[in-house]
Amino acid sequence: MRLGNRILHGGDYNPDQWLDCPEILEEDVRLMKKAGVNCVSLGIFAWSMLEPEEGRYELDWLEEIIQRLYDNDIHTILATPTGAMPHWLTDQYEEVRQVREDGVRNDAGKRHNYCPRSLVMREKTRRIDQKLAERLGRHPGVISWHISNEIGNNGIDGACYCANCQQAFREWLQKKYDTLDTLNKAWWTAFWSHTYTDWAQIKSPSSRGENLLHGLNLDWKRFVSSQQLDFCREEIRTVRKYSSLPVTTNLMAFFRPLDYFQWAKAFDFVSWDCYPDWHSGADELDTAAEAAAAHSLVRSLKRDNFLMMESTPSVVNWREKNRLKRPGMHELSSLQAVACGSDSVQYFQWRKSRGSSEKYHGAVVDHKYGEDTRVFRDVARLGERLLQISEKVLGTCNQARIAMIFDWENWWAVEDANAIDNHIQYQSVFLEYFRPFWELGVDVDILDMDCELDSYDVVVAPLNYLYRKGYTDRVRQYVDKGGCYVTTCWSGEVDDTDLVYLEKHPLEDVLGIAPEEVDVPDGYCENSIRFQGQSYQITGLCGLVHAKSAEVLAQYQHDFYAGYPALTRNIYGKGEAYYIASMNEMDFIRAFYRMLLHEKELECRLNVKFPMGVTVNERRASDRSLWFLQNFNRTAAYVEFLEPYTNIETGEVINGKIMMEAFECIILEKFK
Ligand code: GLA
Ligand code: ZN
Description:
By secondary structure, the chain is α/β, with parallel strands linked by helices. Among the domains are: 402-600, Class I glutamine amidotransferase (GATase) domain (Rossmann fold); 608-670, Golgi alpha-mannosidase II (Immunoglobulin-like), CATH 2.60.40.1180. The protein is built from 17 helices and 27 strands. Strand 25 (637-647) and strand 26 form a beta hairpin. The structure holds alpha-D-galactopyranose and zinc ion.
């Protein structure tokens, strides 16, 4: 999906906070042009300006602003304003306010906190959305809908626990399980004598009550995600009735409460808000790899280009300490998004608010000195650069040959296993397996267990504890037809109701191993494994498995399981499956991936040698490729080109050894 012929550059614009300062609104347009802004997101939290009293709508101001921007070649992504509720709504109809897990209803205020089942909220939302869509849904300046804002981001778990929601949960369960008997079996409620005998006994998990039925916990999370989505879908239906513009919402990538693979189906294209914690550690590499993973996840949701809907041009205000982006980082991190498939660089926000909690959040225009600031100059320079590369970049996208599985249901279940390691963090383990791919400069798509696997050469599924229905069959067929499947210990433990598989591992035939116990050496016992003549330290779980048909490629070195398999490979049909039994230091994963990529000729296609901290993403069209060579090191780095390439911005031909500045990004194409 492509919106126009320029990489979008701009961001959240909140003129609703400045309506009584027309000179500022005038100045905004002048400055936007100066900063190379061609697109803003409007109306995100403007409900009380659009509907100051129930049923009285005032849209003139918004139309005027959209028109003025359009006259100046600036497009609008138009938001529905439901991210925050006006007082006339929250005070008159308490049912619109969420109830927290402790049973207390929220007071008015803040945002992202409506009850998704409230009929009043739904009705008021339909009305305002209808007004907006009728009036502005065909305006030539408007290019897309932005439904609400960061839906579900209520600072806790995205859930409402009110009586309406509890009732809806029971109905949802009834539909799913049909009989209580089926539900009791699926949730294993005979444990501690908690068999349900009446649907009315079922309540959401509670810190003062039931929270140890894993099946209940899992279904509640599915329900919460689906309820928020249901509300969002109703907004989408409303705007689509009056407008044929594409629809998106700003997602948050690895946002635990919402299963974004389900969500993505509702939108025409995907967008997200990106706030990496730059300059936080000994180096930038973990942060950069995590940002790349988040971009890749978002791109993979629809396997298409996406928009980076928000990012900060300088600083956020919600971390303990909020560091400025160092010179060069703004440009690099913005181009990283583009390198990973974004067709935009959008900010939160255009102009700093004067009051309230975000008054010190970074923005393109500061409280003082207008265009005469470091941040403004950075943004304007980037705007020029984006404009210059637009023609070549648009129409290309990353085309990964490697996929990794990241699945929300697995996320919820594996961290609720009450098992060997109660601090296990699925996302961190996933990122440990992602980062070496990032270091090697190969693009990776990120899929859930329902996605199609066949178009990938390699699928890596770390900590794939829960198997969704149909997953084992898909993996079996994928490997049988020639795919390469890599998984780790603590995989294939439970089915989709969180019941443990009996008798044998559900993919035993494909993996060629039989897992028995799992250890987590800590302090008293330490361990390491030996692979290709090298020792690697254990860093987490150690699966004790027996090789059946699999060949053993690495073994544990110590303790009572010295000599047990730590890495196995099994031929199955035309393909093969690897099982990594232990969690190991990253050097092991690096060595393992290097072997795999070399064997399958999946290495980075830019013919250049680059050191740690420099990486590559490749955007492709059918007839050409663009490579983004990025240096995330805080110091200069040397790279060596083994064949000539052209720098698409300078036209310069590059070959041999060159120096890259700290935080530099060079965009290249094949030399012709
Ligand atoms: C989120 C929200 C924005 C703003 C930024 C601040 O992304 O969508 O409204 O609050 O955070 O970083
Ligand atoms: Zn509710």
